[in-house]
Amino acid sequence: MTNNLQDTITLHNGTEMPWLGIGVFKVEEGPELVQAVQTAIGHGYRSIDTAAIYGNEAGVGQGIREGIEKAGIAREAVFVTSKVWNADLGYEATLAAYEDSLNKLGLDYLDLYLIHWPVQGKYKEAWRALETLYQAGRVKAIGVSNFQIYHLEDLMKDAVIKPMVNQVEFHPRLTQKELQAFCRQHDIQLAAWSPLMQGQLLDDPDLQEIATHYGKSVAQIIIRWDLQNGVVTIPKSTKEHRIVENAAVFDFQLTDADMQRIDGLNLNQRVGPDPDNFDF
């Protein structure tokens, strides 16, 4: 089990990915973003997750460079993820999108590159591009985001390399048990975006009761539940006290009974788009 912020899970290709990272969805370019990334690295975070569509890769890159310099660590110590957007899904377009992301980030390589959404008829060509990048040693690991079981099955029919990660919406109201079991069976690491349901779970009475029992915040309970479920987690925050709080989850363990109680909050309820039915 994870004991500290820098603990990693070994992906099926041998790459080490930190269990806990910071996400920057909806954080605009600017000093707040640069500061948040730098602060996270300063407080021991070693995983940063962004995406082309967030429009903030330049600021994330700056935050990483300043953060590693301040912390006196190597670029290799930080695990950086980005994602190819739907408009760029296609063999040549995806290769170009990768170069574009690297240029904006100011990095020589990414640790993980994901297909952001499973656009029908397009994700297989994009996957071929990711395989090319991976085989050329340009990226440490490749994966997908928002893929359901049937998307993964379809992709793997033709794939030379199976995805190492599937990053999906995952929280106590959307526990995705079948998808989780499928990914585990195929050695694809599940990762959670929007683990706190964009803040909607913070006043849930069950979670508040559990939090009080452990002397923790609701956010810390949810993040701990993710980790004990074997799910990599990237909560988003720009505030230093939240960045610190979100990482203070390694000094306690939820009981099996509490894990089951949290599982029981599932309503198959999404806060983000539905991967079965999206039009962007």
Automatic annotation (TrEMBL):
Residue ranges constituting the NADP-dependent oxidoreductase domain according to the UniProt record: 31-266
Signal sequence annotation: none
Membrane spanning residue stretches: none
Annotated Pfam families: Aldo_ket_red
InterPro entries tied to this protein: AKR, AKR5G, Aldo/ket_reductase_CS, NAD(P)_OxRdtase_dom_sf, NADP_OxRdtase_dom
CDD domains (alphabetical): AKR_AKR5G1-3
Listed name of the protein: Aldo/keto reductase
Species annotation: Paenibacillus baimaensis
